[in-house]
Design a protein that fits this description.
8 helices; 2 domains; D-Amino Acid Oxidase, Chain A, domain 2; disordered C terminus; 21 strands; about 375 residues; 8-stranded mixed beta sheet
């Protein structure tokens, strides 16, 4: 068993790895250029959707399998944290206006063609208008049918980051926030912190989970823009995430506690981090209003933009060499796949074993160690 691990990048995966490893008695040290709150991370700007079936429409089977395993693991992981985290597992609903009905049927057909044949339960239900209203009584009558994906849900991303921070306060050896990491090498992290001079710490293993910050080492990384608007809408009631078919890209509305809703687009192929555009804001808000008229009186509380790290196939990878792991390429699936991805890393570090069903996630590769953070 390893004794010490240095984790560079304290976003979602970095924090979850720190919790999982520290729980096994490993001495964990965190390094990050962000604050302890994590407000610069992709996870801070995410929606926390757990939708392995919905995402299968445009993702690979390995993402689906990681997502299904992770969905089952989320409740116990959340229960291990020191603070409450909002978690919901009441499925998700996919709807379309009359003019987009063909897109909904195409989505269903494509999804069914990619689903494993040995599923022990019906994953997708075609529902009529009466069932839509039973599941979501507050929606208008114009939705005469849709799809109900039973085994999906959501987690509150910012509550989760705060709960991870509170839990790690008692677990990690050191947490260097606002640190400047100069070099990441097998078993070594060279960094500056505050007014201290450059220094190097040694570990049994180093884990690089910096997302796009690792681009100097992983040249195939690209950023995928996500846009999100948070509104306070006391006149709207939704029981679960709702996706709405759209001619350009799927839009979603995610209900949170205290009458707050996240309205977003799943992905935009751009690395632009500039503020949300008028066009995007109009599309997102118009879609929300078309879903429920109560959004007309909603108060806009926040707009968010960030770029998620993705590889060419949009699948996550664990790059490894002796003494160094790099976990990256989570694309827009960070919350979806993280619990199982963390489990794979912990098992690999503890035993050297790679689960056969998830062997494609691992890549033995020499990656240049010099980097500036």
């Amino acid at each position: 068993m390893i004794n010490s691990v240095g984790i560079v990048g304290a976003g979602l995966v970095g924090r979850m790895l720190a919790v999982a490893l520290a729980a096994k008695g490993v001495e964990v040290t965190l390094f990050d250029r962000d604050n302890r709150e994590g407000s610069v991370s992709c996870a801070w700007a995410g929606a926390g959707m757990l939708a392995p079936y919905s995402e299968l429409d445009c993702s690979e089977e390995i993402v689906f399998r990681l997502g299904v395993k992770s969905f089952d693991a989320w409740p116990s992981f959340i229960a291990s944290l020191r603070e409450k985290v909002f978690f919901q597992s009441q499925g998700s609903l996919i709807l379309a206006h009359a003019q987009d009905r063909a897109d909904l049927l195409r989505f269903k057909s494509h999804l069914e063609s990619k689903l494993p044949s040995d599923l022990p339960y019906p994953a997708i239900q075609s529902i009529d208008g009466a069932e839509v209203r039973r599941l979501e009584p507050d929606l208008p009558d114009r939705f005469t049918g849709g799809l109900y994906l039973i085994h999906e849900g959501q987690v509150d991303n910012r509550q989760l980051l705060r709960a991870l921070e509170a839990t790690l306060d008692n677990l990690v050896t050191d947490w260097y926030a606002h640190a400047e990491v100069h070099e990441i090498e097998p078993q070594r992290v060279t960094f500056s912190y505050g007014k201290t001079l450059r220094q190097t710490q040694k570990f049994d293993w180093v884990i690089d989970s910096r997302g796009l910050g690792a681009r100097p080492e992983i040249s195939t990384l690209r950023g995928v823009r996500g846009e999100l608007i948070t509104v306070h809408a006391p006149d709207v009631r939704l029981n679960r995430p709702v996706r709405l078919m759209h001619p350009r890209y799927p839009l979603y509305v995610v209900p949170r506690e205290n009458d707050r809703f996240l309205i977003g687009a799943t992905s935009i192929e751009s690395e632009d981090r500039s503020p949300i555009t008028v066009q995007s804001a109009l599309e997102l808000l118009s879609a929300a209003f078309s879903l429920h008229p109560g959004f007309a009186q909603a108060a806009i509380e926040e707009t968010r933009v960030n770029c998620r790290p993705a590889l060419a196939d949009n699948c996550p990878r664990i790059f490894f060499q002796p003494g160094l792991l790099r976990v990256n390429g989570l694309h827009r699936h960070g919350f979806l796949v993280s619990p199982k991805l963390v489990d794979l890393v912990v098992k690999f570090l503890s035993t050297g074993a790679i689960e056969q069903d998830f062997a494609s996630v691992f890549s033995e590769e020499k990656i240049a160690s010099a980097n500036t953070r």
